[in-house]
Amino acid sequence: MINLRNVRKFYGALEVIKGVDITVEDGEFAVFVGPSGCGKSTLLRMIAGLEGIDEGDLVLDGKRINDVPPDKRGIAMVFQSYALYPHMTVAENIGFSLSLKKVPEAEIRRQVEGVAEILQLTDYLDRRPAALSGGQRQRVAIGRAIIKKPSLILFDEPLSNLDSALRVQMRAELQRLHRELKATVVYVTHDQVEAMTMADRIVVLNKGLVAQEGAPMSLYHQPQNEFVATFIGSPK
Ligand code: ADP
Ligand code: MG
User: What is the ipTM, given to two decimal places?
Assistant: First the structure.
């Protein structure tokens, strides 16, 4: 479904992605995990089209998309800091991209209600973001992303601003969402526990390189190098 082939990225003279090969299969929940600064956000931003790729190929469903603009990729991205529009209701926030596309009001309402049901926001559609909890706001941000029916959803540390109890609850919700939407997910985190509990496949990154990839248990039991053994084996 999505392939990165020998992908490199430089910021000036600094090489931050150093020749990365990654495949994520259709429908998978893939987690890219690694310490701060290893290049996770840069990789996601390249997949989304928010950063250019200096070398290598980005292939989506067999088609090279290096030069396809972000809004033509069918990819949605949910960020860690999810700026909602404060003056709009939950329903207006979720439906915003459809109203930009001049979709009729009744159709927007129908789609917003469908998304709200999946995200358990049905009772909050008329509220403004200030009247929501952190977890509810995060769900609105996810709603904004999924209403466009992306085939691939990218999450960049979406739970790191939430307290730990809510983080545990949201992990389960995101997994349920993944099952219901049948979308492919690439989820970035620096949190090993999050990676181990959520992923079908984990890609461990270190200093702009793939340290190892595989199913969570295979990384845990057969780490191929000391970095993976230490990083996966010693949760915080
Ligand atoms: P992560 O998300 O894993 O914490 P990033 O992808 O944000 O890592 O960053 C990878 C490396 O690239 C870091 O060394 C970071 O300082 C550097 N970097 C990220 N964005 C920029 C930028 N716009 N200009 C220069 N260096 C950057
Ligand atoms: Mg980051």
Answer: 0.98
